[in-house]
Amino acid sequence: MATERGGRDSESDAPMTANDRYEAHLERSRAVWDRWSDWYGMSERDFEPIREAAIDRLDLQPGDRVLEVGCGPGVNFERLRGEIGPKGELVAVDYSPRMLENARERIETHGWENVELRHTDAARAAFDEPFDAAIATLSLSVMPDVRRTVENVFRSLHSGARFAVVDVRPAPSGPARVLNPLVRRFLRWYANWNPDGDVVDALATVFDECEVVDTHMAGISYTVVCEKRDAG
Ligand SMILES: C[S@@+](CC[C@H](N)C(=O)[O-])C[C@H]1O[C@@H](n2cnc3c(N)ncnc32)[C@H](O)[C@@H]1O
């Protein structure tokens, strides 16, 4: 279905429903991330120390089963797999087929047998078994419904499991806020960033415990670690 930004279906001129907007955002994300997939390697190391610190916060153990949400080309795989070892399991989901092709190449190059890729919308993915931990780096904020995605991750975790999230947003306070109109525009153009999705708020609402453990670049980049408490 062809759609316009203004909230109307460009073919029928009918107002777009919430579901139409969801599907339109998802399709734009697929197109944007398919397009960037050829170039992503040039910048994938930019967040390396931040990613590594987030993975450390998961306190992974050999044999753990881990979910990666919006894995892109698999930038985090080596480190995650290093923590869970050959007996652990990493299930990584992404909606861009071309990002997943790059992730598959990485898996084949390393000969990893316990990294599974799924082409799916992270908000709608269903899993047979719960995970011991989950991670999303630079991905939640580009999804069409952040809250729904976080709820799905929550459902997919064991009690006691952690979810580490690295993401970006306009500067929350301080003089850097003057740059926010530019930051918003850039993120929307570059990443199909979702201006209606407040990642920190969604995490705090859905999870029992959440803490912003790290911020960088005047708070534009942040790491949140959440925990799903033991039932009872
Ligand atoms: C900025 S990239 C981040 C990739 C990787 N996590 C990293 O840290 O480099 C965002 C990724 O989220 C994926 N994505 C966007 N919307 C998605 C959705 N609804 N479900 C699953 N993946 C999605 C994109 O295809 C893209 O690969």
Q: What does the model show?
A:
It contains seven helices and seven strands. By secondary structure, it is an alpha/beta fold. The chain has one domain: Vaccinia Virus protein VP39 (Rossmann fold, 3-Layer(aba) Sandwich). Strands 3-2-1-4-5-7-6 form a seven-stranded mixed β-sheet, with helices on both faces. Strand 4, helix 5 (146-155) and strand 5 (157-168) form a beta-alpha-beta unit. The protein binds S-adenosylmethionine. The site of S-adenosylmethionine (SAM) has 21 residues, from helix 1 and strand 2.
Reconstruct the topology from this structure.
Blueprint: H1 18-36, H2 48-57, E1 65-69, H3 77-84, E2 89-94, H4 97-110, E3 115-119, E4 131-137, H5 146-155, E5 157-168, H6 180-191, H7 199-206, E6 209-216, E7 221-227
Parallel strand pairs: 1-2, 1-4, 2-3, 4-5
Antiparallel strand pairs: 5-7, 6-7
Helix pairs in contact: 5-7
The protein binds S-adenosylmethionine.
GO molecular function: methyltransferase activity
Pfam families: Methyltransf_31
Domain Methyltransferase: 62-169
| Poorly predicted sequence stretches spanning 5 or more consecutive residues | 1-6
Here the CATH topology equals Rossmann fold
Question: Based on the structure, what is the oligomeric state of the protein chains?
Answer: single chain
CATH homology-level superfamily: Vaccinia Virus protein VP39
Please report the number of helical segments: 7
Classify the beta-strand content into a percent band.
15-25%
Summed over residues and divided by their number, the pLDDT gives a mean of: 91
N-C termini distance: 46 Å
Number of domains: 1
Shape: globular
Keywords: Methyltransferase, Transferase
Protein name: Methyltransferase type 11
InterPro entries: Methyltranfer_dom, SAM-dependent_MTases_sf
GO molecular function, one term: methyltransferase activity
